[in-house]
Batch of 4 targets.
Target 1
Amino acid sequence: MIQIKDLHKSYHMGSNSLHVLKGINFNVKEGELVSIMGSSGSGKSTLLNILGMLDEADEGSYTLDNVPIKNLNEKIAARYRNEFLGFVFQSFNLINYKSALDNVALPLFYKGITRKERSEKAAHYLEKVGLAEWSHHLPSELSGGQKQRVAIARALASEPKVLLADEPTGALDTKTSYEVMDLIQGINDEGKTILVVTHEDDIAHMTKRIVNLKDGLIIDDSTVEQVRAQQYV
Ligand code: ADP
Ligand code: MG
């Protein structure tokens, strides 16, 4: 599903530049649940933004579902982004004056889906995340965990090939974090390819494979079983 080869990315600020990704290689197969782990500033969001086509690498190659992602014009890039990718962020990014249902339905409007189908799909995905009864509530009436469920339903409603989540539990307490990760595991069990960025060890351990990023390089890429075995050596 995802192939990246020798990816580099620097940020330039005036005469200063910061080499954030220094040659990243990894592949993700369809149906995997992978975490990208690393301390704050290690380049996790930079990498996820490139995978999400929100930013471009300086060097290297990226293939998403057999499509080489390079020098695409903005229109085609936007189409691939909408067709292939779903996003979940730490800060939920919901629209405050719209109900949970309308938040989930909105991206479908931009895909040209009819009103009836939009609300059916939105209702279906809200039910999937356990929020059927909360459809008509505003984000301000929901807990943090519920807001993140709405954001997950919104991402799923577009039926993306890959779900990208940047610190999805970063704003949640421990118990709620585990509940949201349970939901993400369930979605993966149904076959969805999911990448979760996190700096928290216990969250990473709720995925199946941990890619560890440090100083712009992958220093470890192992299944959770392998990581556990290493810890007991
Ligand atoms: P992480 O998500 O692992 O915390 P980031 O990818 O957000 O790390 O950032 C990696 C490094 O790049 C940090 O030092 C950060 O300050 C820097 N950085 C991130 N985005 C930008 C930007 N748009 N311009 C300049 N520097 C940036
Ligand atoms: Mg980040």
Target 2
Amino acid sequence: MSLFTAVEMAPRDPILGLNEQFNADTNPNKVNLGVGVYFDDNGKLPLLACVQAVEKQMTDAPKPRGYLPIDGVAAYDSAVKGLVFGADSEPVTSGRAVTVQGIGGTGGLKIGADFLKKLNPTAKVLISDPSWENHRALFQNAGFEVDSYAYYDAAKRGVNFEGMLASLNAAAAGTIVVLHACCHNPTGYDITAAEWDQVVAVVKARNLTPFLDMAYQGFGYGIKEDGAVIGKFVAAGLSFLVSTSFSKSFSLYGERVGALSVLCESKEEAGRVLSQLKICIRTNYSNPQIHGATVVATVLNTPELRAQWESELGEMRVRIKAMRQKLVDGLKAAGVQQDMSFITSQIGMFSYSGLSKDQMVRLRNEFGVYGTDTGRMCVAALNSKNIDYVCASIAKVV
Ligand code: PMP
């Protein structure tokens, strides 16, 4: 009998488990479309030139590493706030928006979840059906009951928007609604601008609490374009939360760079909210890391580097779109009868391919092509060398 005898083995993380299986696979043609990571056309994880430029500056003039303030690098927080709301926007100039540095987008979500739990302990959380696989567990771990709102319609290959509205309309006042600001993970289907207007209207009418998860700003149509959704919530006069991740947009996955922004009613209210966010941070990990946030802040606050970043991000975005088209064309050329053109109407890094669990398992076991059992494939891991093999493999299982 030991102290930990009663400890049960937790289930493996589905995506990380897939990675382990991929790493152990000896198939020389294997392709990992499981994990949500952008790879370049050579299958390499990019190290952006703008990031390297700042890191060179940092090693040329090394600085001591004292503790950061609880809310992180000040220049970072203000740059992220500008990115989220627009640098000259009213929420920024009025001082009623607050942004705190977070440990990745996940950290931003968790700070927000802890803050909301204290504010409204009995609120329920609604996430999309399906959603990023960590949303449910993250909000449950913060103490919330988590339910879902209708989102994906497999038969239609798109969003069940009527169902989504119906779910939101049925939610009790104060319900926290986690919305994917752009590039929905896992489906790749976003709602239209006109549909966003309707969501904003329901959120307002029902007095729901919007929590926008923006993990892919810039991967859809561009920084500003993808941020337009935030402007709709601002224009409606709502208060809300936004989590930001730079894991993908800066290819800084392991540096854990993210943030939480909260739009309040007034500057005075923002001060009170910030004081509470700091308590959530302080009691979890005291204060965040210097490196990644300094890199991102320097890029965002230096016009030439910022332009370079937007161009590098644009290259990633354009390459993903080109891969979507190649996938559609390649599947047709490989003999797939059904119309797969829906893949180009999806956006961001992922595609819900419509393949069944059995087909995904066959792809993995017989061809070494790894996606999740739900049929999700990371289009951002396709390249000019593996695309033909992936198309031929899919053609053999459908
Ligand atoms: N939200 C969504 C929708 C995501 O897809 C991800 C990352 N895959 C995150 C949050 C977490 O981002 P990070 O890795 O920066 O913690």
Target 3
Amino acid sequence: MTIHDRTTTPAPAYPGEATAMITPDTNGTPLIRLSEITKIYRVGTERVHALAGINLDIQANDYVAIMGASGSGKSTLMNILGCLDIATTGTYCLRGADVSRLSQSKLAGIRGRQIGFVFQSFELLPRTTALKNVELPLAYMHVPHRRKRALRALERVGLTDRAHHHPNQLSGGQKQRVAIARALVQEPDIILADEPTGNLDSATGEEIMNIFDSLHADGQTMIIVTHEQNVARRCHRIIRLRDGLIEADERRA
Ligand code: ADP
Ligand code: MG
């Protein structure tokens, strides 16, 4: 390739895009590959098989809902996908790298760089402005230009005018938008959301899903745990868990 060719080849708009183009479904490494993942919790002398052998590939820019009854293993799966916890057995490859057996500090580094989290209860620091809440992940990772990047993330969720408000001065939907900005700010490979609309009324939930739709359209990979049909039907793929196993994996138009 000549230098001229290089300059006329558009740069990928986001990191996942390059992966999607270079390694498509058919012959390449997916963004996420889980092979025979199990998670067994020990409670006293009891053993709880929370995940019983999960095989799952997720491609860059997938838009996935994870559904299933209470106790079916959704949160356990999210914790493993998000590198908050490790599987008892099985392999997790993230961008082709085996992260199944990493130390807590290595996992923390992966979370900081590659994964953005959104929770049902927002999990914002109460005595801290929206802007500072969004800057926080960058501070942990010692990333420069924190303020500018945090403002840009707040802009993406339409909250520029609330940057200096504290969480108790924001509505539920606004708090969740701050949390989404915080998840976005380090430009993660994946956004993981566990019941992101669970504490919101349905109209506000729709607003949050509109933001998720637009992030997905911009190339973001999204994985959302939900029990709400209205949320799941926005996604392009619905995975149903039952007793720690994938019961159904449905792609939608
Ligand atoms: P869901 O999010 O679908 O409700 P979870 O992943 O939270 O399901 O739980 C799956 C199973 O694992 C349940 O039977 C639950 O009781 C059990 N479980 C989850 N977390 C723990 C834990 N920390 N210790 C022991 N058992 C747990
Ligand atoms: Mg759960």
Target 4
Amino acid sequence: NKQVILKNYVNGPPKESDMSLKTSTINLKIPDGCNDAVLVKNLYLSCDPYMLGRMKKIEGHYTDAFAIGSPMVGYGVSRVLESSHPNYKKGDLIWGFTGWEEYTLVTDPSTSFKIHDKDVPLSYYTGLLGMAGMTAYAGFFEVCSPKKGETVFISAASGAVGQLVGQFAKLMGCYVVGSAGSKDKVDLLKNKFGFDDAFNYKEERNYNAALKRYFPYGIDIYFENVGGKMLEAVLNNMRVHGRIAVCGMISQYNLEHPEGVHNLSALISKRIRMEGFLVLDYYHLYPKFLEMVMPHIKKGKITYVEDMADGLESAPAALVGLFSGRNVGKQVVVVAKE
Ligand code: NDP
């Protein structure tokens, strides 16, 4: 059983060398007495920025740190090889938490979702139809309270979550602009995901001026993925009664001293609602989300770009790449094809 293990807790930016590959033997049977478990073959693994939090020892973090020397854990799509759980049987496809390895004994599959609709690429259940999709859906529709005609700004807009938020906002009839870190990503936003406009934040010296250019009358909704100086510039450009959904602050995760935001008083003068959220609190909406999104995917009204890394060997580099913007779209690791 090939595995990606955490070698040491991460200090500062994550490096490939914080992880290593290991091969161990595994008995492809559920051990006697291990009830309510499933033994799975992992097909696709999801690389997610939050995993960095589990690679560090952080007091009071909302998830536990990974164990050193054990396989990393993340979202993935897997096939059930054997089950001692009444809800799963051999051959079922599921998505949920699994190990970064070829085969995993999932001892608590109750948090996994069974995959019923297989008319779409299975890898979508690591992103569009998995955690990232739910994050975009809950963050935009539940937290932002969008209305037709409003102006929406999304940072890290071409990523797993951002590309969907933009498409949801377009479906709602909003004016949508995104920022991303390369020309290719900006092209994707404008030409593939249907954003009204987009800019490369790495080429803008003055975020404030850039936002004024794209939003001369201000921003109603900001879907926050990066934090720091971008947030500060957005606050200057928000409209009265605007909403900010704080999904992530990836520009801050690796800083020893996170940057301060100096103009939070804009929240008062502009009566802005700024709300952090965790997708974990919204999984009860998953059936409603599927009902809404599936027809759009099948009619080609929602599209999704994935960045496929081949083989478990490529998983450490793929994960680390999220923090330098190497991924174009949702970062997936292909462990096995069915
Ligand atoms: P992405 O697919 O967007 O990948 C991360 C992207 O972030 C990179 O491609 C890069 O794009 C951008 N980035 C990396 N470093 C920086 C930086 N220093 N400054 C600005 N941008 C940077 O990831 P996800 O879509 O999976 O996640 C997006 C955000 O949502 C993250 O902040 C994540 O933590 C958060 N999140 C929150 C959840 C919740 O429940 N609240 C759940 C899931 C995700 P670029 O080239 O454009 O810079």
